[in-house]
Specification:
The chain has 191 residues and is of the alpha/beta class. The chain folds into two domains: 112 residues, Rossmann fold; 39 residues, Arc Repressor Mutant, subunit A, CATH 1.10.10. Helices cover 44% and strands 16% of the residues. The protein is built from eight helices and seven strands, in the order βαβαβββαβαβαααα. Helix 4 links the parallel strand 6 and strand 7. The termini are far apart. It comes from Aureimonas pseudogalii. This is Two-component system response regulator RegA.
């Protein structure tokens, strides 16, 4: 009998026994629909919300065991959803997804109770792995960490947002010339 030594595709991760309720909060409808389908196929009881108020309402109705929350929502911030879930169910495990990652929001999300912070696009297996990771084990280092230029750019963006997008105030707080800051803000984010 011949044995096939070709590597097979890994089986998708499945939810552990117990409460498998999960809330997905994201204002990107196609993305949240795909993610919900993937979670349902892996045994989760999925509910979705497209904004902060809808997410908080879903938590009030029945606080889930797990949540995946987008950081930037159309009419608010995903941190508000995390905070509401933490009050309703302190043992809930939350992963934050974002297309606009920066260090300050990651730290705030973790302080509010998120167990991980993943950049979009993240597939269901990555998210489930983050949700199920033993709290005492460290996460794997990223394959492609941010460059020093990207970290600098993220810091500038953070201060700019904290200054309500006021270029003059941001330049003053960063001790840089206003025109230099305008040139940096006009460019795309470095890799």
């Amino acid at each position: 009998m011949l044995m096939d030594n070709a590597p097979s595709a890994p089986a998708p991760m499945r939810v552990p026994e117990g409460d498998a309720s999960i809330l997905l909060v994201d204002d990107d409808r196609p993305f949240v629909t795909r993610l919900a389908r993937a979670f349902e196929q892996r045994g989760f009881a999925v509910r979705t919300a497209e904004g902060v108020s809808e997410g908080v309402s879903a938590i009030r109705a029945q606080a889930p065991a797990y949540a995946v929350v987008d950081m930037r929502l159309g009419a608010g911030n995903g941190l508000d959803v995390i905070e509401a879930l933490r009050r309703a169910r302190p043992d809930a495990r939350v992963v934050v997804l974002t297309g606009y990652g920066n260090i300050a929001t990651a730290v705030t999300a973790v302080k509010l109770g998120a167990i991980d912070y993943l950049a979009k696009p993240a597939d269901a297996d990555e998210v489930i792995a983050a949700l199920m990771r033993d709290p005492d084990t460290k996460a794997e280092p990223p394959e492609n960490p941010m460059s020093a230029d990207r970290i600098r750019w993220e810091h500038i963006q953070r201060v700019y947002e904290l200054c309500d997008r006021n270029v003059s105030e941001t330049a003053r707080r960063l001790s840089m010339h206003r025109r230099t800051l305008q040139r940096i803000l006009a460019k795309r984010a470095p890799r």
